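fold-stage: in
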Amino acid sequence: MNPAMQSPDDKSYVAALRALIGPGLYAADLENSPLIDLPVVHLLAGTDSTPNAKARCFIELFEGVVTGQLVKNDRTAAEMLFALDNWAGVPARDRRVEVARLRDPNWTWESSYRKEPLERDLTMIFRALVRGGAEAKPARGGIDSGQTRNAGEALLEQSDFTPVSYTTKFAMPDVPRFWNDLCLTAKRRFYLVGGTNKSWFGKSSEQSHELGQAITRILLGGGTVKIVSRGDAVVVAQTKHFFDRFVFDPARRDGQQASLQTAIDDQRLVYVTVVHSNYDAVISDDRIVLLPIPNTPSFRNEALVLEWKLESGYHPFMNYLADIDRTISQADPVGLDARVANG
């Protein structure tokens, strides 16, 4: 019998799928999940593959099953549950609320969906994974050849994820507009990962008002804003001052502070600090601009800048989005309060 057609212990695999809901598919610790031991994953990746290779292969399989086998609300439910496509980066709390409403407008996650209805959806997705495995082809060279390469690597090699590259952060046409528009045009997602973020939060008063208005618009529209910086006292003070003066003060004046506080409580507005980051990045909706950090500070202005969009660079975009979300989940949060001025 084809290994992909075997019937493993459904219950344990469904429980493993349930564990992916909180972090989402891309941020989950798949290398330690029983899901990478599914027969179809072994078939595709090769039995001697590393846990990382199997995890990448499982992601490829999962994406293909959701887009190729699930339709209409079943597909939307899977995307909501596992933070795929437009739901990538959306907090688990919001995804849970929406998937319950998708199945029944009168349902809530806690009282209606999270038991039997969720179990049915997870079982449906698991069975789709098994069906998808029925058509799976072994990794090149045969499963036990010892020289196979995992299917995820092969697929990545065959795909063109070449980024748009700029020789420096000043090399693109209309430099100020390029960077400003990353926030000003964002509708539902704006992530900023930097050292000091001084070029964002140390702007002129006029530019800061414009940036603050854009952040407020994103949050009031149900979107997400996440900021990562170094933990230096001066950097933290500058960032908090920006939010208090250009986001929270106008909100208090306009009676919108409760809505912004809800965004903070729901973790749609998050500010954390880290000791070190291997790259700076800006994510604007489905677009990421990445700045690999040079070894010497004096080289910073000459460093390469890379850009991907979701439709043309799906895997790089999702990989970095997941990495940033993991970083934020493990970092030190900085308290923000839309209701009280920061002194």
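fold-stage: in (second)
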Amino acid sequence: MFLNKNNQIKWKSVIWATCIVIALCFLGVFWFDVPLFIFMRRFNGVIASFVDNVFSLKIWLIVLGIALAIVYILNIKNGIKQISGLKKYFPYDLWKNRKKIFHNELLFTLFSIFCSVLLAGIIGWILKVVIGRMRPIFLEALGLTGFYPFTTEWAFNSMPSGHTVASFAGLVMIGLIYPKYKWLTWTLAILIGLMRIAFGAHFPTDVLLGAFIGMITADFVKSKI
């Protein structure tokens, strides 16, 4: 979405989109979040529960990490050969020669998705702590909403949605690598975001911000890799 034909970030578009997302988040907090959340809760069910269990940041990283390890082990000889050929082994040198190290197409694809999800997850976690938004459980149990910034307590880490951050980062990256399936990856990512609201885990703007962070991160990682 934010990449040009030369695989570079369109920063002007990013700035405009960021302003729009921030404005929508403010509108949501003070206006449409609660009524839209209440409306979406009627769609809670098996799919929402499945999404809650399967598409968390932890599951994304574990599955991608295991897949990376398996594929790398299957191609271990070429991998060791590429690494041993390096003059230096500092992180920068390993990153600079990443295409040689992750020479296999599947391996490089998994590496790209992993980097996207990991970076997005870190950004999302930092924002969760800094923003400190109360989760919808307070609304449903006590009729309360609000913010308690700079806390690591789960109950006050609603914004952004971690599941949405990870899923958009991973699925948008897959769509960038395989454009033919972009419609499918985007559809699934949006469905996951909507189900987080239906499940009662997040407000709509939590999901909106999470989706934005995920897609921006995927574009950024793709431009660098």
